[in-house]
Write a structure and sequence with these properties.
It is a single chain. The protein is of the alpha/beta class. 37% of the residues lie in helices and 15% in strands. The protein has helices at 18-31, 49-55, 75-95, 107-113, 118-127, 143-148, and strands at 8-12, 36-40, 59-60, 101-105, 133-137, 151-154.
């Protein structure tokens, strides 16, 4: 772990680019010889950047996820989802003790669904090692987290090809 002070980043908002910004920071940190831990909430790990993060030396830990939206899940599937999200959070908490950069991608979505709790995320922020840089992404960052962060990027969608019927493209949107 580096000697410099670790800060907290939040990438939130309705626009495209929150995960992209987090991955870019991972690449930069890896290029500087830093240890990087990356986990995702409510995603299945199939996005194109995941294999590249691993190839560059990041520790990527993505618990098995359901392929459907939370609202469409049975109660048993929802419970498995909650367990997976808690595992992702526990991994991030452990990593925050000795990694230089920890990314919790889409943790705001997990908060919104209640699969992780606000007090748990606050404990992650407050309990990380002094040199651990922490990145939290996802729409709808709650005020309690915004107050604790050092960087706040509110990425807004002004125009998106989806509005013109263009589907998400591998390697661009995922």
């Amino acid at each position: 772990m580096g000697a410099q002070q670790g800060l907290v980043h939040i990438y939130t908002g309705t626009g495209k680019g929150k995960t992209t910004a987090a991955v870019g920071l991972c690449v930069r940190a890896l290029g500087a010889g830093k240890r990087v831990y990356f986990t995702q909430f409510l995603k299945d790990g199939s996005s194109a950047e995941i294999s590249q993060l691993r190839a560059l030396g990041a520790t990527v830990d993505i618990p098995p996820q359901q392929a459907k939206f939370f609202a469409a899940m049975t109660e048993a599937e929802k419970e498995r989802c909650r367990t997976a999200q808690q595992r992702a959070l526990a991994g991030a908490v452990a990593a925050a003790a000795d990694y230089d950069l920890v990314v919790c991608d889409e943790i705001m979505a997990a908060l919104a669904l209640g699969t992780v709790k606000l007090d748990q995320v606050c404990a992650l922020i407050d309990g990380r090692a002094p040199g651990c840089e922490l990145v939290l992404t996802g729409r709808g960052a709650p005020a309690e987290l915004v107050e604790r962060c050092d960087y706040l990027s509110d990425i807004q969608c002004k125009k998106h090809p989806y509005e013109q019927g263009i589907a998400a493209r591998r390697g661009i949107e995922y």
